[in-house]
Amino acid sequence: MKIVAKPIEMICWFDKEGILHPLKFRFENLDDSNFVVKVDRVIIRDKERLAGNEMLVFRCQSIIAGIEKIYELKFEVRSCKWMIYKM
Predict the structure, then answer these.
(1) Model confidence over 45-77: pLDDT tens digits?
(2) Angstrom distance (rounded) from CA 60 to CA 21
(3) Torsion angle of alpha carbons 14, 84, 37, 44, nearest 10°?
């Protein structure tokens, strides 16, 4: 996987226990067009500290342009910002 580290717009939901579930996200391609990806499956949920900031890490799987891909999403808890980290 290649490190991308781009901010994204995310739709997600929380269950009764407060666990975060990403549903779909939108990000800009290199040609400035928006691309929407539905999160088909969350493989791994993890926590990490990146430069002192607590992050929730989601390794996910989706079909993108007809190809099944695995990628990594990160949620920065303090600022509530999402990014696609690896693809």
Answers:
(1) 999 997 888 999 999 999 988 999 999 999 999
(2) 11
(3) -60
Residue 19: per-residue pLDDT: 92
Please state, in angstroms and rounded to a whole number, the distance separating the CA atoms of residues 61 and 81. 20
What are the structural domain ranges in the chain? 3-86
pTM recorded for the entire structure:
0.89
Cβ atoms 28, 34 nearer than 8 A? yes
- As given in the structure block, the two tokens for residue 31 are 């040609």
Residue 8 carries which DSSP code? -
pLDDT digits (tens, 9 = 90+) for 19-40: 999 999 998 877 888 889 999 9
